[in-house]
Write the structure tokens for this entry.
Amino acid sequence: MPGTQLTKGGPLNVPHLCRTSTSQYPSAQNTKELQPLMANPVCETTAQKKQQPQGPERPNSRQRFKEKLMQWVSYIAGDMAVFGEWMKGQFILLQILDWVLRGAAQVMFVNNPLSGLIIFAGLILQNRWWALNGFVGTLFATVSALILGQNRGAIANGLYGYNGILVGLLMAVFSNAGDWYWWLLLPNIFMSMACPIVSSALASINSRWDLPVFTLPFNILVCLHMVATGHYNHHFPQVLFQPRKSMHNLTWSELEYSKLFCSIPVGIGQVYGCDNPWTGGIFMVALFISSPITFAHATIGSAVGMVSGLALAAPFQNIYFGLWGYNCVLACIAIGGMFYALTWQTHLLAVACAFFCAYLGSAIANVMSTFGLPACTWPFCLSALTFLLITTEIKNIHKLPLAKVTYPEKNLIYFWKMKKVERIDKQRKNQEKDVESQQKKEEIMAAMETKEHKRLDVCSVDVPQEETTQNGQDRNPEAIELNLTQL
Amino acid sequence: MPGTQLTKGGPLNVPHLCRTSTSQYPSAQNTKELQPLMANPVCETTAQKKQQPQGPERPNSRQRFKEKLMQWVSYIAGDMAVFGEWMKGQFILLQILDWVLRGAAQVMFVNNPLSGLIIFAGLILQNRWWALNGFVGTLFATVSALILGQNRGAIANGLYGYNGILVGLLMAVFSNAGDWYWWLLLPNIFMSMACPIVSSALASINSRWDLPVFTLPFNILVCLHMVATGHYNHHFPQVLFQPRKSMHNLTWSELEYSKLFCSIPVGIGQVYGCDNPWTGGIFMVALFISSPITFAHATIGSAVGMVSGLALAAPFQNIYFGLWGYNCVLACIAIGGMFYALTWQTHLLAVACAFFCAYLGSAIANVMSTFGLPACTWPFCLSALTFLLITTEIKNIHKLPLAKVTYPEKNLIYFWKMKKVERIDKQRKNQEKDVESQQKKEEIMAAMETKEHKRLDVCSVDVPQEETTQNGQDRNPEAIELNLTQL
Amino acid sequence: MPGTQLTKGGPLNVPHLCRTSTSQYPSAQNTKELQPLMANPVCETTAQKKQQPQGPERPNSRQRFKEKLMQWVSYIAGDMAVFGEWMKGQFILLQILDWVLRGAAQVMFVNNPLSGLIIFAGLILQNRWWALNGFVGTLFATVSALILGQNRGAIANGLYGYNGILVGLLMAVFSNAGDWYWWLLLPNIFMSMACPIVSSALASINSRWDLPVFTLPFNILVCLHMVATGHYNHHFPQVLFQPRKSMHNLTWSELEYSKLFCSIPVGIGQVYGCDNPWTGGIFMVALFISSPITFAHATIGSAVGMVSGLALAAPFQNIYFGLWGYNCVLACIAIGGMFYALTWQTHLLAVACAFFCAYLGSAIANVMSTFGLPACTWPFCLSALTFLLITTEIKNIHKLPLAKVTYPEKNLIYFWKMKKVERIDKQRKNQEKDVESQQKKEEIMAAMETKEHKRLDVCSVDVPQEETTQNGQDRNPEAIELNLTQL
């Protein structure tokens, strides 16, 4: 996701372990007598770091197991930062594979190559030809971004790949020429390579409002390809989409609850254009590995979409097919913890956004069908952008700066830290204020006493009055009360 | 109107009367001997202010009547600022009612609860079910803005309500389910509550160019609802709009002038979706109360729309029905005195904008009908935004900063004051320049005289020439003439 | 083109020859003895300037001929700046004619009245009624810009005329009422006069990203007129455009290569809506006169469009008719040397943009046909804007600031100068660094020697080691090597 584009600024500055050892080489050679101690300097340093916190308290086996587990989880969960760092020293083709896998997962805002691998497994289960097209799309989008001199950190996070996989996949899904029509790879490659161009251009616009580009490049390019060729094309015919021209049947007794339940994973699968519930289930696993919050919001979003479909009297087939879910899934993830820090207010906002997105989805699907087009993920993009543009005076709805966006859990920790710092600042200020008012009180009391003495001497009452008119508004009421009582 | 959003910054800073007395309380208590003079300090201050200008010249009964009248007019005309201030101390439900009424009038850029009340009366005359929906829409939009933590001053000016009333009204107008179909209130409430979200998001974008959001949220949300459900929906069917597919009859002899005349108030009524000429007339009264300039431009706009319809060979029924008028009404008000200070140039610009808007209205109506949608107020929004984005070197076309926009009369006074200040500044600068040039002249003459003396002594002519080549360009021609004559 | 809008800031500051002589008048009169030398001061100055470079080297006849030729070329090529300067002193109607001619050529980014004249000749060859409408459009757009108080320099460069000529021409081309339907001049004048308004408004938005408005005002206004009236209008009927509803025939054996070749000039002609290949050829001459780079990219663009049409299985008639070419022509010119400095990278980018534009052209044509509209130059505008919004780390893709854009050759010279300055700066910095490192080396060597002496005295080795640990990372490896060898 574009959000994490600049985040890598941090990790990139942290010197990579292997490189650090290289740069230490001259000094190491220079200090020969120290070498025995640094036989394996890299591991040593890592070991030292681990030992230090363990030093004072001796852990038992259970604690050690828990620690080990947490460490393993930290290796595969989140954005797999450690793995990403390690990858930087590897062969370029391996690196590109990492970027492609991250790109595949970034569709769901997940920056995790393992999730990407699982997602590809799900795609292969659905349709191998689609999976191939998706892979080609991601690959060429990433390569094109490299050629176009885009930010290397963003490429490494898969931010130029996720539009590519969607372009590749959906062009295969919506092609009317059948599977394994190899000519399709030509426009697929062309459009994938155009992805970074459109991404970069849109980012120039959206960055003015600190907004990500989401899947807008995919929407633009797939719609462009589909409407440029159309259903009646000799080379690249498209599936026929037509506007609704008459009332459809809607018998509530025919509603099947099992299918309705299945529509939740199917809705998640439809993000990648897949209607197989198992594929959707696999995608859910991929989400859960990286971020449980993302997983939860994806599920909620899919459910909200299904309910909206029923509320707006949509044909049951569309609901079962997950067409009401996938946009809500993405919108709910984006608002619920990804670009806003997760609080109960933003959680409600995410649910509201999912409902809004479902409504918008129906609208856009109807509009697009006039041109023989599917809705793609336009509804998600537009609704999420709308909800990200809101300005509010509620402090718990905190939009993270795009450079700080990583994944919901880390975002939440960042938000908590920020709040803590603010609270401490506030407390300090309050304390200072208290001290100040205390000082003021004392000063006034001292002044009173002096005046009292003077009054006793001169027997005049106008001295305190004069002062009141001079700075009456600025003063503390308590001080004034004191003033009065003193008089 | 969003324009007045920040205007309240001023009034809000002016301490509310009741609050002022509270804050003066301690000092008042402190200075007991002064109390008799300040028995009713608030009224006293107000009275003093009034007496001061009246002091020197003793008014006769006619003047007094005129003054009284002006005072009463100032209470109900304009934005009823005094009433608004008074309202701030009242019970919250009463306040919300004030905001709802202001919201109802803000559709026409009128920030006046009395106008709002009259408009509601007009709506009830038209159709009670529509009026109910409009009320529900305004109410929920306002409440939603409160929940979402939007700017309280903007809410109090009805800036979050006017989209709500339009959403509520037009959803009822375009519903094909007939009046009193109570289920309609559900999407009505949902869409009304989405108004502040869309408003806030659009304001984030438009504020970059210091532009208001106009009725864009209404346009977006009503179109969204209508196209999401459509004519063939089981729950919320919409009226059928279809693109023109053949030539319509157009016999100029059939043109009825009485209906054509009626189309002017009907055009104003159509801003709220009402085709009853009496309702339109009532709306005109509501406009006149608050701002005669607004009223005049509304009438001109409606007439321009009607003429444009005839010029572009529109079916007469559409013209009679006010469909050519309502956008022009709004566009003409917006440009003529509301967001530009009213001068004859901006008046002409407003008329030009109304013509442009009528053209655009026809275009948008045709485009939207492809999707089964009405034109809503898209033409007004787009044309007014275009005309507000113009940059020009003409000084009399002065776009008011959004924070200074109130109502045309007040805007005009603000503009005049600004111009006066500028004129005085210019005069001062000119005077300074004159003084400087006078000084320069005298200096040169003094120098000349000295040189003359020298020349008489040395009999050489190259001294003045030298000077001419040194700073010939910078000097005043008058000074040079003097120079020459002196020589 | 809007790009050159601010460029004139330069030339405008250069005092116009005639005016300079006037301002020199008083001093000339003052210094009577110098007058004989300044009989014709203007020519003198010009002559001096020419003589100075010629002074030292005596040119032979061939060199002199070449020089003369270059001078003549400089008078009619590029933006004819000298002619433009001379025009400023002429009668206003003559000036407006200059502006109108420049406006006619600015459609192709050419700021040259001679090219404009040739283009008008081409238009007359095509259709005299169209040419008349084009002239009326340019004239009224320019006059309207004057009335609206737009920047005089921009008007003088034809930046307010090029949308006018397109509006006038295309309204005549797409009118279904036949040639010499004089009523058409009314909407023509109205729309032409609206051009500067829309231009100014769009410029307010696009300037935030330092982007030109291209032909967006034309696109907006012609589409507005066409869709507002439509095919079934009594006053201003439009040509019927309809979406493709079935498969067209496509027999590759029927492809005619001669027509395909002709489609290249026809594609260039279609920028002005002309299908006559001779007209296209005349336009190519007009381009070549002003800027060969523009001419080359126009030809490449047209060819790319033709190839794209074949690749996407377009009906041959459309390709022959130049419908695939004209957008690519404009896009290729804009990216190839006009708004980017021409390098081989931007040349490739221009070709890529042309392909993208062709794809987009097909898409937009299909979408617009739903509303009964042609594609106009929307595809060019959108694709060129997209490619101008790209941000990249490649230094040879240099987007010129809009204020510096003139014509490709001059842009290139500007870019080279800029690069040269940068290179010199870099060299200087490197030299400074070298000097610094040299100094450091010497310092270290001096220190070493001192230490060597000390070591001989004290026989201890820990002194240099200490230093290594202190600032080992910051130091030059060479210095360290020296350090080691010294030890």
